[in-house]
Amino acid sequence: MKRISIYLSLVFFSTISITYGDANLNLYNRFNPYASTYNSLGALENPSILGYLDDRQFTLFYNESISMDSKNIGSVIEFGNFGLGINYFDNESAEFLKYSLPIGFRASDYMLMGFGLSLLDPIKPEYGCAWDWYAGAMFLPARFLNISVSGQHLGQPSVQGIPLRRRVNLGIGLKPFSEVVEFYGDFSFVEHSKDIANRYLVALNPINGMRLFFGITDDKDMYGGINLDLTRFGFSFMGNYSDEKSGYDGKGFAFRYSDKHYEELLTLTRHIILLRLDDSVKDGVEEDFFGLQKKSRSVVDIVRDIRYAARDSNVAGVILYVGDIHLSVSAIEEIRGALTFFKKFDKKVIVFLENGDDISYFLATCGDRIVINEGGSLYLKGASSQMLFFKNFFEKIGLRFDVVAAGEYKTAFEPLIEEKASERRREQSSKILKSIQGTLNESISLSRNFEQGYLEKVYSISLFSPEKARDMRLVDEIGTYEKVKKNIVNYFGKPYPVKEDYVRASVLKNVWQLPKRVAIIYLNGDIIYGKGFGSSLGVESIGNLDIADIVKEIIADESIVGVIVRINSPGGSTIGSQLIFEELSKIRLHKPLVVSIGGIGASGGYFSAIAGDYIIADKTSIVGSVGVFFLKPDLSNLLKKLGINYESQNTVDSSDSDSLFRGLKENELKNVKDYIDSFYSYFKEKVAERRRIDKSRVSELAEGKVYSGIDAIQLGLVDDIGGYEKACEKIRTLAKIPKDIEIEFVEYYKKRDIGSMVLNNDAAINEIFKIVFKNWSMIDFVQYRYFE
Q: What is the Cα–Cα distance from 706 to 715, expressed in whole angstroms?
């Protein structure tokens, strides 16, 4: 009784699987109707199952057999691919506690493996404990075929003096008619003994979350039951019929709680979800200070959540809380597209606009109704580009720059050397602004049913109080967020509760084949030669060595079948950009590579993009800027003003040409010009080669010109218009992933290198000193970069 009490105290900390027995203690458990609906074998029988679902799950079970005079009570707790099990077994031959430690893992896309240890502890004190071990494997060659094998009592233990014979189970499952019906055959082979009767089972899944099953053995024993899955909770019941007893032979039942959602039998409570967008949402991955975990949600996370919620029968609608957003127009375009998709499922989107500007209002207009904060305002001024020009200031302090550019429209350096923007720069900025503003105006007018030219009137006023915004039909109501929640019935028709912590749930589907893994590489910020700083100092950067490490890992991982590169970069180092292009091209030799350009993929960012098999950009993405420039500071006049003399002893005349403390001579500038032209030609050749565009045509498109995504597709610089979801669709096609197979995304990005920073307020100063006192070379001043 003491040990039974110990068991009862432990049972609430363990998980699944049922074990039957006969007079010779040949324990077996095949179809296991008490485990998860989707596990035909239990983790204590075939531990490889733990490699199938990355889940935290707790199950209690009870089973009895009148003909065998046996009872079995147990539980198992799962942590990802690790499980702990305990069960108490009692029949006419023996009473004992069985403790199990199963471990399962995924050996490949199509195979799971596992092993486990068991401690058999007899209740009678005169018998000692016995150790045992068991192992299993599961093969999933197709979504309709499941082959499993397991071995029990491999350690040949004895319980109360009775030896347990080694046993091998072979199971085969078929799903010939999609998910509706399943057929199983289970065959056992016991060492030096008559084989245990084979089993045959048919299971029906008439609706999501319900599974009916019926089985029969060679001995004409029968059993049947039902599994019910209610999101996180599940319940199972089974009854046995014995041919020997000619009637009822006992029952069994189990209760399951899972950390993840299973397909649902019933919609217990429909709800409204709150989706809050503010400055914490990033177009990329931002880590905490120590680089240990994601600090905030990304645009990709938001888009996936919205599209999942569209198909979630529990979600009746969305309240979109729009706060202080710091995202590019293209990122907002992707979120807006996901919300438009959400509305196609006859679900409403109510927007609460905290304080609006052009970007947040562009997002808000996708809603069925806009409620503006009663203490807020709406400031709509249209797209603009502002820039400071520092030439006169630098002349006063004695700072000048040596500049060499290749590309007539390569003007990124102008703010440093000119008093005002050149006509070429104005032409490019005007073209981009008109394209982006045109996209916004078209979408807003269509959503709000504005007549042509109405927005020009709006922009002429610019600043709106809540009352004036309502009078101008820009919003529908004035209120607070609390008032919005109180008006749920008016908005959605029923008093649905509001769920404020909704995130995309991983629904566990009744599909045997494992999900396919696709990598997402985030290429954000300035491109650096070597290693970048990640998001340190508030400025993102990534280096070619960072990408090289990521690419090496992805190529070596055979479970990854495709790669999406998400680019938000204006470019940077020429050699860094070229090496990133080479690294990404390595992926293309092994796996399909799709590029998704977010806010900007220009200059070195675009050079990296052309490594892809397919390039996708948003309508408002900034693309192109094929060109190169050289920019080197000359601090000689500043040193004179400060009374500092500079001297250099050289072996040849140009040994100190890379010094920041003198300008370049005429012959040195000529050499730089030749060098820059060769880089420019190389860039154009790669664009012509990868984009299959005639070289003369590339020369026309290059010259440092930038384009919006909508223009870039017409010019052949990208392949399609869209965002992350479009990239997912394309990678599914290129990687030949069936539509009914789930994709598991694995994120790769430049990790925050906390070891390279001082953990105090001097961290920024330390980084600045690294830059100032760096041993510069001429290549550091050559850039594929676009500034805007």
A: 12
Whole-angstrom Cα distance, residue 233 to residue 229? 6
- The residues near 181 (Cβ < 8 Å, ≥ 6 apart) are 175, 202, 203, 204, 205
When mean pLDDT is compared over 282-291, 312-321, 332-341, the highest value belongs to 332-341
Answer yes or no: is pLDDT of 276 > 70. Answer: yes
C-alpha 606/C-alpha 595 separation (Å) is 10
Q: 70 falls in which pLDDT band (50, 70, 90)?
A: confident
Of the candidates 378, 355, 366, which has an alpha carbon nearest to the alpha carbon of residue 474? 378
Fold of 271-410+418-499: 2-enoyl-CoA Hydratase; Chain A, domain 1 (3.90.226)
The stretches of 383-422 forming alpha helices (DSSP H) are 391-397, 414-417
Residue 313's φ and ψ, nearest 5 degrees, are -65, -20
Using CA atoms, how far apart are residues 216 and 685, in angstroms rounded to an integer? 70
Backbone angles phi, psi at 643, to 5 degrees: 75, 30
Q: Rank 51-55, 72-76, 647-651 by mean pLDDT and report only the highest.
A: 647-651
d(CA 298, CA 308): 15
Answer yes or no: are the C-beta atoms of 425 and 414 closer than 8 Å.
yes
Same fold, 271-410+418-499 and 517-647+682-785: yes
Residue 512 has pLDDT above 70, yes or no: no
Q: CA 123, CA 508: separation in Å to the nearest integer?
A: 39
- Whole-angstrom CA distances from 357 to 299, 332, 380, 632 are 19, 13, 6, 38
Integer Cα distance of 91 and 190 in angstroms: 20
The C-alpha atoms of residue 436 and residue 330 are separated, in whole angstroms, by 9
252: Cβ–Cβ under 8 A, 6 or more apart, which residues?
18, 33, 34, 61, 62, 63, 64, 225, 236, 237, 238, 239, 240
Which letter, b or e, does each residue of 564-597 get, where b requires 16 or more Cβ atoms within 10 Å of its Cβ? Answer: bbbbbbbbbbbbbbbbbbebbbbbeeebbbbbbb
Beta bridge partners of 748: 521
First CA to last CA distance, the chain: 77
Residue 680 · residue 627 · CB < 8 Å: yes
Q: Compute the average pLDDT of residues 30-55.
A: 55
Q: Point out the least confidently predicted range of 149-158, 159-168, 673-682, 719-728.
A: 159-168
Q: How confident is the model at residue 362 (pLDDT cuts 50, 70, 90)?
A: very high
- 517-647+682-785 CATH choice from 3.90.226.10, 3.20.20.70, 3.30.465.10, 2.60.120.260: 3.90.226.10
DSSP run (H or E) holding 7: helix 2-10
Q: Nearest to residue 595, comparing CAs of 556, 565, 639? A: 565
- Give the containing element (helix H, strand E) for 675: helix 666-691
219 half-sphere exposure, CB direction, 13 A CA radius: 15
- Residue 292: pLDDT over 60: no
Contact (CB, 8 A) for 253 and 272: no
More confident residue, 561 or 532: 561
Q: What average pLDDT score do residues 753-766 get?
A: 40
User: Residue 518's beta-bridge partner residues?
Assistant: 562, 745
**Whether domain 2-258 has CATH 2.60.40.2080:** no
Q: Tell me the C-alpha distance between 233 and 58, whole Å.
A: 10
Helix axis angle for 724-734 and 329-343, nearest 10°, is 80
Burial 723-750, CB ≥16 within 10 A → b, else e: bbbbbbebbbebbebeeeeeeeeeebbb
Per-domain residue ranges of the chain: 2-258, 271-410+418-499, 517-647+682-785
Residue partners of 512: CB distance under 8 A and separation at least 6: 140, 142, 143, 144, 145, 146, 173, 175
**695 pLDDT exceeds 60?**
yes
Q: What is the dihedral of CA 688, 692, 697, 700, to 10 degrees?
A: -50
Tokens standing for 487?
């008006």
